[in-house]
Amino acid sequence: MSQQEYRKYICKVCGLIYDEEEGDPDSGLAPGTRFDDIPDDWYCPLCLVSKADFIPLEEMAHATPDDGTQPSHKVSNHADVMIIGSGYAGWQVAEAVRKELPDAEITLITADDGIVYPKPSLSMALRQERSADDLKEYSAAQKSTELNIGVKTLTRVMSVSEKYKKVLTTRGNFYYDKLIIATGAKALKPQIAGSVAHEMVTLNDLPSYRRFRQTITEIDHITIIGGGLIGTEMAEDLIEAGISVTLMVREQQLMSGMLPKSIAADLADKLAVKGVDIRFGQTVTEMNGTSGAYDLSLDNGEQLTTGLVLSAIGIAPNVGLAKKLSLEVNRGIKINHYCQTSNPDVYAIGDCAESDAGVQAFLEPIRRQATTIAAHLNGNIDVTFDAVSPLIKTKTSTLSIMLSLPLGANDQDAWQTETQIGDNQKLVYKDQEDHLQGFALSGELVNQANNLYKQITDAA
Q: Where does the Rubredoxin-like domain lie (predicted)?
């Protein structure tokens, strides 16, 4: 009997693909491990959801988000709960609220088309040869029908009346009892001189990925500005897709705010072997030329010609709406342990929200925020959003890396090396009482991440 063909499964939350043929050695799953044979307590190594959140890749590929489905739930003029924003945070909290409040009138308003897609996939979709359409999971109509909520797409919020609990939009006025702001964050661009500096691109959502894919079809070299998590992941994604890359890193190491120097150095060496041109301590000061042949001036006096410039220097929370509501704003919208803003009838979630731990733009904290908001709306004050450092897996196939960065940690010298065997490193971050606060693992040692993270969360 011939061996059954290997299958691929995709995480519905983050888009990670489990290939049975390759397995997941980082999680202890040898090549050839069938999905059905994976232990039930296994979790997605990227976003930490369970095995139950994976579906066969062919089911996703055969999905038809634009199948003409019409929302079955009409948008009410008055909502018990109104959500503004349809990114991961918006849809996640919509699901959580519907689960807690099955009879509530819920309305979601979004300025875009509301398509549901796994945002983490944006920085690995090229190597997976996935188009923007391939990343779609549900249309807004399909998702709203599933959740039995009202959705207004392509609708921009102009203002909110705190006194009357009224939202003024480009498609009419709507009223709410409780409001949830899930407006996300915008990608930043460096302020540089030059006649075409405005043509620098960012990659922070599905529409920008679609434009990016269309633009790079005839481009053989891209310059990325920013050596943080996204910039580094994009550099590897592009080089594996056959596009030459120059990575401009202002600091002297990759992911300087996250990685210990030793692991960052190993990663840089491996990317360089793949062909990524990493320029440490350099940045772009001027951008001239024409599309497809930009002339870049660097701060060390060098010149560089490139086909496209991609900014990956970070994000800024969208707080404009919060300011109109006179909510307390720092870098993001300030929230308490229930994710309430300075107005107790208004909540904030996701990349736009800032807790005592700062802005945590990762999937796991967003899921906990959604659960907290839904429980609180249902009168449960026992569920709170507490500051816990998330477990992070970088999407760098050249070197497996998993870490949990201590909240507020900024001292590189505090990292202690416990194991270093070639590319396999284990570093820990401890407090003055020798309690584990964080860790960074690379290579084969990433399989220790789950146990180490449990030590941290159990002690929190």
A: 6-57
